[in-house]
């Protein structure tokens, strides 16, 4: 299992190196895992708004849409339709734990390759599905691909990146997710006019980013940390020189070797993860993922076309509005890329909480006031909803979206990194599943009140970020314990220095005791 480097002084070591073309290529190809995930988020919501898709697989929902006095909040309330979207995430949840073991035993690169193969298989089944069973099995395979990719890619990016720009490079994963969503929205808008198989084109194009990752990953390097961890020491040094662009990598190389030596003493990483001193990063990782979903973002992104149809836009106009929100998503994520290593993680999170809270309350207020169970919103109100959705998406895209993945990937010590991050990924998938499976039914029961439900969660998130989330800007991933957790007013209580000294003394006498 991976390990932790502990500095002997209070200063962050400055490792030599520069941003090389090799790192750029590795980042772009690896981030195609985010492109896969993002495209699926966008396409699954888009095809559920297409009549041809509904007539083929969810005929009852299509019939309900045709009714003259359909209930605005309940017309898409169908368990099987929700299962089409949410089944992927339950498969990803389970796959993330298997991916964690594969990451440690075989490396980050093969894990990403297997992710793309799962995804390609899922695309084939969903594209050529003739019944709902075939469709759901395809979604489960897609889920395995997402679970493996979301486990491997953020770790790969964090370990590959120099500390001073780790945030920006890691956020490329989220940036590619947003690009995938935007591309899916554009594709949905274009092929929605192709009858009766336009939805099959949308589903089939999902194979493109998977193929890019599958073949592109043959050309990228494994991370030096993973190579050294698996006893490929000289290969790890050689790769470190290539990605840093300098020959003198001794300081960083020695820190990685030391980290791996410490980590090699841990034979049961999941058991280690349950210890008191492992709780701070574990709690942060899980809570960040839970909060990311309870912003309400995936409810909006999954069902944006459905939501816009609900407030009165026609089918084509709803898909076009989704393209607009997708574009806002991409542009706003670039804001995070630029600012995350300058202003820090917490500032972006706190500002976004205020922004998202205001927009959710305005959306809920407009719908509660003017959208009844039948009829549509006045044009002015419908435009307000679209604008507020865009402002909401912007706030999420430069904060909880990318940082929900970045922070858990950089805060675990190496000996529990892959195991700990698997909890983050599985938590994300679990609560994404919950939101995807429950949103349309909850919308039917709570109506506009669902937006106030998410607003209440945003208040809790803001308080958590203000008081309990430490700043990790500029801190090397293997310095987090000493420089972050042990310095935080609340989390430092989980680290007993006397116990640490005693443990080190025992390890010196009995080096094989874990």
Automatic annotation (TrEMBL):
The keyword Transport applies. GO terms for molecular function: monosaccharide transmembrane transporter activity; symporter activity. The keyword Lipoprotein does not apply. InterPro entries: MFS_dom (IPR020846), MFS_STP/MST-like_plant (IPR044778), MFS_sugar_transport-like (IPR005828), MFS_trans_sf (IPR036259), STP/PLT_plant (IPR045262), Sugar/inositol_transpt (IPR003663), Sugar_transporter_CS (IPR005829). Signal peptide: none annotated. The chain crosses the membrane at residues 21-39, 81-99, 111-130, 136-157, 169-191, 197-221, 282-306, 318-340, 347-367, 382-407, 419-440, 446-469. Pfam families: Sugar_tr (PF00083). It is a multi-pass membrane protein. It is found in: Membrane. Keywords: Membrane, Sugar transport, Symport, Transmembrane, Transmembrane helix, Transport. One of its GO terms (cellular component) is membrane. Residues 26-473 form the Major facilitator superfamily (MFS) profile domain. Belongs to the major facilitator superfamily. Sugar transporter (TC 2.A.1.1) family. PANTHER family: SOLUTE CARRIER FAMILY 2, FACILITATED GLUCOSE TRANSPORTER (PTHR23500), SUGAR TRANSPORT PROTEIN 6 (PTHR23500:SF472). This is Sugar transport protein 8-like. It comes from Populus alba x Populus x berolinensis.
């Amino acid at each position: 299992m991976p390990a932790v480097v502990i500095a002997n002084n209070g200063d962050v070591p400055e490792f030599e190196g520069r941003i090389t073309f090799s790192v750029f290529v590795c980042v772009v190809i690896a981030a195609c895992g985010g492109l896969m995930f993002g495209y699926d988020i966008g396409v699954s919501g888009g095809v559920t708004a297409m009549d041809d898709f509904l007539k083929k697989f969810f005929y009852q929902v299509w019939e309900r849409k045709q009714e003259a006095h359909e209930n605005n909040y309940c017309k898409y309330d169908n368990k099987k339709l929700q299962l089409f979207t949410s089944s992927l995430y339950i498969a990803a949840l389970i796959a993330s734990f298997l991916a964690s073991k594969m990451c440690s035993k075989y490396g980050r690169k093969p894990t990403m390759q297997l992710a793309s193969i799962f995804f390609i298989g899922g695309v084939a089944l969903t594209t050529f599905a003739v019944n709902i069973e075939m469709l759901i099995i395809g979604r489960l395979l897609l889920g395995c691909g997402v679970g493996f990719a979301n486990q491997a890619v953020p770790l790969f990016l964090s370990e590959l990146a120099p500390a001073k720009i780790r945030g920006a490079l890691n956020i490329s994963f989220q940036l590619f997710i947003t690009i995938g969503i935007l591309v899916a929205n554009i594709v949905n808008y274009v092929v929605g006019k192709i009858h009766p198989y336009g939805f099959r084109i949308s589903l089939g194009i999902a194979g493109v980013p998977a193929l890019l990752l599958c073949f592109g990953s043959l050309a990228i390097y494994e991370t030096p940390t993973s190579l050294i961890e698996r006893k490929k020491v000289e290969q790890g040094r050689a790769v470190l020189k290539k990605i840093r662009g300098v020959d003198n990598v001794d300081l960083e190389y020695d820190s990685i070797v030391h980290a791996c030596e410490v980590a090699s003493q841990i034979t049961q990483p999941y058991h280690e993860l349950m210890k008191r001193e492992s709780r701070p990063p574990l709690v942060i990782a899980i809570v960040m993922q839970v909060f990311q979903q309870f912003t309400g973002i995936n409810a909006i992104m999954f069902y944006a076309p459905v939501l816009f149809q609900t407030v009165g836009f026609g089918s084509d106009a709803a898909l076009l509005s989704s393209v607009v929100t997708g574009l806002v998503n991409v542009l706003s994520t670039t804001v995070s890329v630029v600012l995350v290593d300058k202003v820090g993680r917490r500032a972006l999170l706190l500002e976004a909480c205020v922004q998202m809270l205001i927009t959710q309350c305005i959306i809920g207020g407009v719908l509660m006031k003017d959208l009844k169970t039948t009829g549509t919103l006045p044009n002015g109100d419908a435009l307000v909803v679209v604008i507020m959705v865009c402002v909401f998406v912007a706030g999420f895209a430069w904060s909880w979206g990318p940082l929900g993945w970045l922070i858990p990937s950089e805060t675990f010590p190496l000996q529990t990194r892959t195991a700990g991050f698997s909890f983050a990924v599985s938590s994300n998938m679990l609560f994404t599943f919950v939101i995807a499976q429950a949103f349309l039914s909850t919308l039917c029961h709570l109506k506009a009140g669902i937006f106030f439900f998410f607003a209440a969660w945003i208040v809790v998130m803001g308080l958590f970020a203000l008081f309990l989330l430490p700043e990790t800007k500029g801190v090397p991933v293997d310095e987090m314990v000493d420089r972050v957790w042990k310095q935080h007013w609340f989390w430092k209580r989980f680290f007993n220095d006397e116990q640490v000294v005693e443990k080190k003394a025992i390890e010196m006498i009995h080096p094989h005791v874990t």
